[in-house]
Design goal:
Length: about 375
């Protein structure tokens, strides 16, 4: 046996050994139910390539998997099928995942080789990643092909994988998984232990203590709006990896990731996986507090960790002016017209006064304080 062939065999055996210690990263929206094909190295052969496409790369390889579903596996999928719901017909689905295998891997994520083709029955999935994007970040996701799998114990399913080798090693896994809804994950999150109010309060006190004294009066404003929807949060939360106080609405975050999986904090863009999310009980108590009204979207947090809502002074002034505008100050309808004009004029002057704050002279935060002080 030549040295090169011996190295190839050793390399493959190394991959086999590495795979024993690898597992796929969990997908919150799917629960593994039954293993169909355990994590297996992809070893394609050029001579066996049967893919027919225009300008097929000469070095494209192919590996075929032949499998028959057992009666138990078939029943798991077929007996939980809802034909009345075409968007989610199958509660249990057939899932294919591909990853890269390398030294030091323990938990792997979905990653495709370049120019990947997956054929199940008569359907073909094609994934070609542009070179620049391929070099910058990983590209891959689970593939669900339940409708293409023949649910019969006597029929063999053919699954063909084609790709262009790039010097890296890849592996494939196939499972039956159960779909988990976003609402179920939200309920599960509510059942988990959140971060205590005392811990959050201590963090706030420490952060406000370290603030520059010149900025201390403007640094304790906290928005109750979710950065994703710009509406008030119902379930304030953040990742255990985040070092900021600001939160996002966990319900919205989970539902958005069901549509487009990113699992990144919308505030600081660090990893924010489902298992890393914790409800912030301090802010949960605030958004549920009877001290807040429907329109309140901002609070002031004091250095001792206590809080109060920010009064919307401008809206108060508008309400007062409107109240004067509609007051019946005189029984004579004609004479009552004139006071209305005066009220509007007075409000116009007041609006002018507020708008005349010079942005160059005062920073935005100080200008906000000025508005709050006006009564």
């Amino acid at each position: 046996m030549s040295l090169s062939k011996k190295r190839a065999v050793l390399s493959y055996m190394d991959i086999i050994d590495l795979i024993k210690h690898c597992k796929f990263e969990k997908i919150p929206f799917y629960e593994n139910i039954k293993e169909i094909v355990k994590l297996t190295p992809l070893r394609g052969i050029v001579e066996q390539c049967t893919l027919v496409i225009i300008d097929r790369p000469r070095d494209m390889v192919e590996q075929e998997f032949l499998l028959r579903m057992t009666v138990d596996q078939i029943n798991t999928i077929a007996l939980n099928c809802d034909i009345s719901n075409p968007k989610q017909k199958y509660l249990y689905q057939f899932q294919i995942r591909i990853c890269q295998i390398g030294l030091g891997c323990s938990e792997v994520t979905d990653e495709f080789p370049d120019k990947l083709f997956i054929r199940v029955g008569t359907k073909t999935w094609s994934y070609t990643v542009p070179d620049k994007q391929f070099k910058k970040k990983k590209f891959g996701h689970p593939i669900y092909c339940t409708e293409e799998i023949k649910l019969c114990p006597y029929v063999t399913n053919s699954i063909k994988i084609n790709w262009v080798p790039n010097g890296k090693h890849y592996a494939i896994e196939m499972n039956i998984v159960k779909k988990i809804s976003a609402d179920t994950l939200i309920e599960k999150l509510l059942g988990k232990e959140g971060r205590s109010s005392e811990d959050t309060k201590n963090e706030i006190i420490n952060k406000l203590t370290d603030v520059d004294p010149d900025l201390a009066t403007t640094s304790n404003h906290f928005s109750l709006l979710c950065p994703l929807t710009k509406t008030r949060m119902n379930l304030p939360a953040k990742s255990i990896n985040c070092d900021h106080i600001k939160c996002f609405d966990a319900s919205t975050f989970i539902k958005l990731n069901e549509l487009n999986v990113t699992w990144l904090c919308p505030i600081c863009r660090v990893s924010c996986l489902y298992d890393e999310i914790k409800v912030e009980n301090y802010f949960l108590e605030i958004v549920k507090s009877s001290r807040l009204e429907d329109g309140d979207s901002e609070i002031v947090i004091h250095n001792d960790g206590s809080w109060e809502k920010v009064l919307n002074t401008l809206n108060t002034l508008v309400t007062e002016v409107k109240h004067i505008d509609f007051m019946d100050l005189d029984s004579d309808d004609e004479e009552s017209i004139e006071p209305k004009k005066e009220s509007r004029a007075e409000y116009s002057k007041l609006s002018e006064f507020i708008d005349l704050v010079d942005e160059d002279d005062e920073p935005p935060k100080k200008k906000l304080n000025l508005k709050i002080m006006i009564k």
